[in-house]
Amino acid sequence: MMDRQANLRGASWMVAMMFMLAILDVIMKFMMTEMPLFQALFVRGCLLLPVTALILVMRQETKIKIEPQHRLTIAYRILCEMGLSLTMLMALMTLPLANVTIILQAVPLGMVAAAALILKEQVGVRRWSAVVIGFIGVVIIIQPGAEGFTTNSFYAVTAALLFIIRDILVRRLPSHYSTTFLAAPMVLAITIMGGVMIPFTGWVPVQMHHLILLFLAGLAIGSTYLMAVHVMRIADVGFVSPFRYSGILFAIIGGILFFDEWPDRASLIGATLIVGAGLYALHREQLNR
Predict the structure, then answer these.
(1) What is the distance between the alpha carbons of residues 132 and 30, in angstroms, rounded to a whole number?
(2) Where are the beta strands (DSSP E) in the chain?
(3) Using CA of residue 190, residue 191, residue 195, residue 198, what is the dihedral sign?
(4) Residue 267 and residue 102 in contact, taking contact as beta carbons nearer than 8 Å
(5) Handedness of CA 252, 249, 187, 169 (dihedral sign)
(6) Helix 37-58 and helix 208-234: axis angle, to 10°?
(7) Burial 103-132 (b: 16+ CB within 10 A, else e)
(8) Which residues of 169-203 are buried (b: 16+ CB within 10 A; e: fewer)?
(9) How many angstroms separate the CA atoms of 18 and 186, rounded?
(10) 3-class DSSP state for residue 112?
């Protein structure tokens, strides 16, 4: 159990991490209006790769060997990250920023279900009830069968599923593989994917503000990776996890300020159900521990 000051610092870092994620989403949503998706991925990756390599060298992680029994798991994780990047950006292109963020906040509830079904962890009726309520919140947001519903809503749902699968795969890897070490091949793979697809999707002239924004997006990605590790090391998970939902507020503000996207009633109701169910599931998990 961490002391109060450590938990407060951890909560501050969690809020900062969610703020950086909101900045990342705003930048990438804007970039989708300026250049093709795969070009944006390729340029962002070219800017992020040198930074990632520098961090690996500074942390002396360039010579870490991957054990044979972990290679397939890491390969699956890279594929998940590639699919996640695509579906996340497609969701940002076609849906309000707040809706995408709210749906992704259901990931912790999905992790509860995945832990029970895949990892065979014990999950009680109350936490299962929270999972169901959170799923109802997602359904309210995407409104299947409604007039304004399109298959674009499933980009965000697919991204959430890939988040869950990716995190389940992480649990199967030993802790001596650092976050940076695991992130490096994913950055490389996404960059290559973007470059390979450019001939099929087109290329637009890259301007200076494109480079600045995509470099900032790369820094946001790197900083959130490091913040996530730092938070888990200095604070109690149960104390800092509720502050993850600050991302919804940042997304709503970002959507209003930059894209004139105002959340509708369905989004607010769905967000309330997801946040409430998530907090209750977290509370039950802490009691069980």
Answers:
(1) 34
(2) none
(3) positive
(4) yes
(5) negative
(6) 50
(7) bbbbbbbbbbbbbbeeeeeebeeebeebbe
(8) beeeeeeebbbbbbbbbbbbbbbebbbebbeeeee
(9) 21
(10) helix
- CA–CA distance, 129 with 185 (Å, rounded to integer): 38
Rounded to the nearest 5 degrees, what angle is found at the Cα of 221, between the Cα atoms of 90 and 228?
Answer: 115
Mark the ranges of the chain whose per-residue pLDDT is less than 70: 1-3, 119, 144-151, 175, 229, 232-233, 237-238, 288-289
User: CA-based diameter of the chain, in Å?
Assistant: 56
Q: Which DSSP letter does residue 205 get? A: P
Cα end-to-end distance, the chain, whole Å: 12
d(CA 90, CA 166): 19
Candidates 180, 200, 203, 236; CA nearest to 13 is: 236
pTM for the predicted model, two decimal places: 0.84
Instruction: Say what the pLDDT of residue 194 is.
Output: 92
The letter for the amino acid at 177 is Y
Residue 202 backbone phi and psi in degrees, to 5? 100, 165
DSSP state of 206: P
**132 to 39, 68, 82, 128, 180: CA distances (angstroms):** 38, 38, 28, 6, 34
Instruction: Tally the residues of the chain.
Output: 289
Tokens representing 220 are: 């946001």
